[in-house]
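Q: My collaborator sent me two sequences in one message, no labels, and asked for predicted structures for both. Can we handle them in order? The first one she listed is below.
A: Yes, handling them in the order given. First sequence, followed by its structure tokens:
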Amino acid sequence: MESTAESSDRTPTEVSAALREAVATMIGAEPDKVAPGANLIHLGLGSLEMMRLVNRWRRDGLPVSFRELAAEPTLEAWQRHFDTVTAESGEATA
């Protein structure tokens, strides 16, 4: 996956593709096989893999919340969370 920090200039669709690719890599699936509303835990994403993703995104400058991602483990929900924290980060620096 490309750096999430780089995703701030991308459209939501492009960020979603990066998210999908990161998750698909973690669960060993093809990105196009991960449906936006699919429960990622049911697809094989464990808490350890989720924490690795969170740590990677935080290192890239995106302050994602493990709790938020774990509460609703779907690409759609994660995209909403990413959009929210990206907007809040932008407001904090503005």
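Q: And the one she listed second?
A: Here it is, processed independently of the first:
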Amino acid sequence: MSIQPAPGPPTQTPLEIEATPFGDSALMLKASEGTAEERQAGSRRLRELVFNLQPHGLLDVVAGVDSVLVEFDCLAVSHAQIAQTIRLAAAGTGPAGGLAAADAGRAAELFVIPVVVSDAFSPDLPEVAAELGISPEAVLDILQNSELSINLLASAMAPMMGTIPFPGQVSRCREPRTNVDPGSVMVAGTSAIIQPFPGPSGWKVIGRTPLTVCDIREDPATSYTPGDRVRFRVIPENEWEALEGQFLRPASAPAAPAAPAAATAGGTTDADR
């Protein structure tokens, strides 16, 4: 009688790393294989790996949507040396414990974010629809029916998400706005982002959430991290007031036993905690 071994847990696909010199003191790292989403996820894993590894000579790490820029002291280490150190670590033969260790952190959370669409909150929606060759309603349907990944935290902790399955790429504004209101939901390319604080932006605004996505009075200031998942849900404008200013929390956050009555849009907010 033969005894078959019990199946083990699923294993991560080995990551093929593309390392390209970027000037004399930086290296651009990318996952070289897979779909766009797999390459973006690979870049997130690489970023965590480099943070954990802290290779000799490291000066800074700059996250991109599907890349990681590693800046280093070129008097202390070469492109080839730091690339080899990272490749060995990714393969699990270095001190950082490999990509498995980078994956072993906090489990991904799901956020359901209410969005109000109106003439005032969605000034670029008609232009985005025309550019894609579909109706504004179809743009919103695609957004609502997609589950996006937070690829990185951009300026001011803004969650940058992808990939929206639009039928094409959305261009940026010809002239960037000098001030965009907080909570604005914006798109460019096949990515989305939420403006946490007032500030300039060249992304196209198609809606606004009444929730506060970043609050320095909270610890941490945001409840999301790269790798978390996001769904958007369009809500009636008359629900804005009940949700305005509430801190965005994951859908799995426990509900409060006696919260005041408030309209919610699927995501857990301060009102239903």
